[in-house]
Each structure stands twice: as C-alpha cells, then as structure tokens.
C-alpha cells in the first residue's frame, strides 16, 4: 500500500518536474543568447532597409527551395507507404507534409500530435494499424538518420581539409598513418580469431524496463521492414537527405539575397548546429530559440547585424511561419478529399474487427513489404474503406 502511494506521488509530480525543467532550459538558452547578442541587435529601421535592398531573384530561389523541401518530405513518406503496399496520392502526401509540419511547429507536444495525425491519415489511405505505425516510426528514423549523415559528411569534409593541409606541411605523416592502419588491421584480425564462439543468446530481463517499453515499437518497426527492397530504402533516404539540403539551400539563398559575406561551409555549419538545438523541444517548433540561435551564429561568423537579421526573418518566414496557414489548407484538403485507392486488402477490410488500442503487431498477422508495388495501382486494385475518425 505504501509503495502504491509512493508510485502515485511520483506519477503526480513527474509532469510538473518536466515542465519546470523545460522552462528552466528555455530560460537558460535565452540568457546565454541574450549575453551573446548584447549590443549587437540591429535597429528595426536598419532591418527594413536591408529587406528593401534584397535581391528579388534570390528570394524567389529561397521560396522554391523551401517548396522543394516540403515536397521531398511528402515523397519520403509516400515512398515508405509504397514499400509496404499502400498508395497515397501525391496531392494527399503534399497536404499531409504541410499539415504535419504546421502541427509540429505550432502546438505544445507538436511532434507527438503530428505523428498521431499522420497515423490517422495513413489509415485513411488503407494502411493497417501495424503498417501505419511502422511507416510513421521509420519516417522519423530516416529523417534523423539523414541529419546524422549530413553531420558525418561535414565532419569528414572538414577533417579532409585539415589533414591535407597537415600532410603538405609534414610529409612524414603519411608514412606514420600507413603504419598505424596496418597495426590496427593486424590487431583487429588477431582479436577476431581469439574470440570464443558463443552459443545462442538467452533472453534476460532488461535493466531499464521503461526504456525498453519506449523502444519496443521502434524495434518492431525495424523488424517489420527487414524485407523492404533496397530500392525503396535508397529512394526514401535520398528524399530525406534532399529534404535537409533544400532547406539549407533556402537559408543560403536568403543569405545571398542580403549579401551576407559568409562561405557555404560556415553557413552549413551554422545550419547543422541550429538543427541540434531544434531537436530539443524547448518551445513548439523551436520558435524564438531557433531565430535567436541562428542570428547568434551568423553574427559570430562575421555577418553584419541588419542583413543577418533580415536573413533570419526571411528564412523563418518561409520555413516556419508560412507553413502554419498552408498546413491549415492541407488539413482541409485531407478532410474533404480522401483517397479511394489502396495497395490491396488489409486486415481492416476483413469482416472481423480487431479491438484494442493502436499499437504495433495488434492486427495478428505478419506484415511485410511488397516488392512488386509500383507508384500507381492497377485499375482493379481494392478500394479502401473510409474511416470517419481516429482508428479504434
């Protein structure tokens, strides 16, 4: 009885502690940014002059780049659905991309609400609970994986430049590096030969049951996607990478429109650093924190105050603030026009109804991707049952 009371007490106070920690984090970030921007913020009149002096051609490039970024996000989700035998029309995929982004950047706990909204729309287009949840999880993993890949590419490019400069100054370094590689390969070969053979792994209780519970849907999604054709993985990952790169191109075009004297490598480093801050849910969509962090990075790189502020305003206008009204339009499209084409029968189209909460693996059947799915369905493909509300 005492243990139950203690558990209830901890459960009651945990949300308050999380809210307090988030508020403290926001205040700490704002305090650091305020110290760094002290005396560097431009006057509003100077920012307006920079806006009026912008090159319209590069502003148009920024608009097109951000539109391409949203289109690639839609393509990423659509490709994953295709890999599992579900077809979502292009107009619905684009509308879902805008509406998901609008939810994520405008509401508290926007990422979770955005994922739930995507789950519902996947179900509307004929996906089973398992497929909808799997695609939802894999889409997030691909986006994060693409961002990590961009970090790795940037790190390797920077390391290559520094190593090349060091080798030109110290010719003996290539010889030392070659010897180090040979020694490392030899040690690895010997270590693998000495490893004892292990028998089959036995299941054992996890040390962190709560973490295991959180990661279980991810593990199930990965298991469900093992048979996905490499072509689908390549196209989905390519769309995720291009999504980040076109968003970076939007920032670069805005910087060029205001004549910022910052190199592409420096701008990419600032962008990737800001994306790290963006992954921390201090505010919905990072509103306020992203603007200040981006402005701080541009000023630290040597940009002038007024053009840097104008660049941040234009970039965030295109990548955040305008997405919210466009997301409402996308929500109307999804609400009024529903797809009637699916890849085939799903467990939801059977006469039996599966009861229970939505989670991975509840449909009671093995889920695997179809390798023979094309972008468009044949005329005699099955028709999806229309879902009036959230899936049961």
What report would you give on this structure?
One of its GO terms (cellular component) is plasma membrane. Keywords: Cell membrane, Membrane, Transmembrane, Transmembrane helix. The chain crosses the membrane at residues 17-37, 58-75, 131-152, 172-192, 313-334. InterPro entries: L-PG_synthase/AglD. It is found in: Cell membrane. This protein is an all-alpha fold and 392 residues long. It has a domain at 45-166 and 215-349. The chain is 69% helix and 0% strand. It is built from 13 helices and no strands. The chain has helices at residues 2-37, 44-52, 56-83, 90-106, 110-124, 129-169, 172-194, 209-224, 230-257, 264-278, 289-300, 305-321, 323-336. Helix 3 packs across helix 6 (129-169), helix 5 crosses helix 6 (129-169) and helix 6 (129-169) packs antiparallel against helix 10 (264-278). The longest helix is centred in the middle third of the chain and has 41 residues, at 129-169. The radius of gyration is 25 Å and the shape is globular. Residues 339-392 have low confidence and may be disordered.
């Amino acid at each position: 009885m005492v243990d139950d009371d203690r558990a209830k007490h901890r459960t009651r106070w945990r949300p308050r502690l999380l809210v307090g920690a988030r508020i403290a984090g926001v205040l700490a970030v704002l305090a650091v940014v305020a110290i760094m921007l002290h005396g560097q913020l431009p006057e509003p009149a100077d920012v307006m002059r920079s806006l009026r002096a912008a090159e319209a051609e590069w502003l148009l490039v920024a608009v097109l780049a951000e539109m391409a970024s949203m289109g690639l996000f839609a393509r990423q989700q659509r490709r994953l659905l295709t890999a599992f035998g579900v077809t979502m029309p292009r107009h619905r995929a684009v509308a879902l991309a805008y509406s998901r982004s609008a939810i994520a950047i405008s509401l508290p706990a926007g990422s979770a609400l955005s994922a739930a909204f995507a789950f519902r729309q996947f179900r509307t287009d004929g996906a089973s609970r398992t497929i909808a949840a799997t695609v939802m999880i894999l889409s997030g993993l691909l986006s994060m994986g693409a961002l990590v890949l961009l970090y790795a590419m940037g790190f390797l490019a920077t390391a290559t430049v520094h190593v090349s400069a060091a080798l030109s100054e110290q010719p003996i370094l290539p010889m030392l590096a070659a010897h180090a590689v040979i020694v490392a390969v030899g040690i690895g070969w010997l270590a693998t030969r000495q490893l004892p053979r292990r028998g089959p792994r036995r299941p054992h209780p996890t040390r962190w049951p709560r973490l295991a519970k959180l990661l279980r849907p991810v593990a199930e999604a990965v298991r469900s996607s093992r048979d996905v054709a490499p072509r689908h993985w390549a196209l989905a990952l390519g769309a995720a990478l291009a999504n980040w790169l076109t968003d970076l191109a939007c920032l670069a075009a805005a910087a060029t429109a205001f004549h910022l004297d910052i190199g592409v490598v420096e701008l990419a480093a600032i962008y990737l650093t800001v994306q790290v801050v963006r992954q921390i849910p201090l505010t919905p969509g990072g509103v306020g924190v992203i603007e200040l962090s981006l402005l701080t990075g541009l000023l630290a790189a040597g940009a002038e105050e007024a053009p840097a502020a104008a660049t941040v305003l234009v970039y965030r206008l295109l990548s955040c603030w305008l997405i919210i009204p466009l997301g409402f339009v996308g929500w109307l499209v999804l609400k009024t026009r529903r797809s009637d084409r699916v890849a085939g029968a799903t467990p939801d189209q059977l006469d039996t109804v599966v009861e229970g909460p939505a989670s991975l693996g509840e449909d009671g059947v093995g889920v695997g991707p179809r390798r023979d799915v094309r972008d468009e369905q044949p005329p005699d493909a099955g028709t999806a049952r229309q879902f009036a509300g959230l899936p049961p």
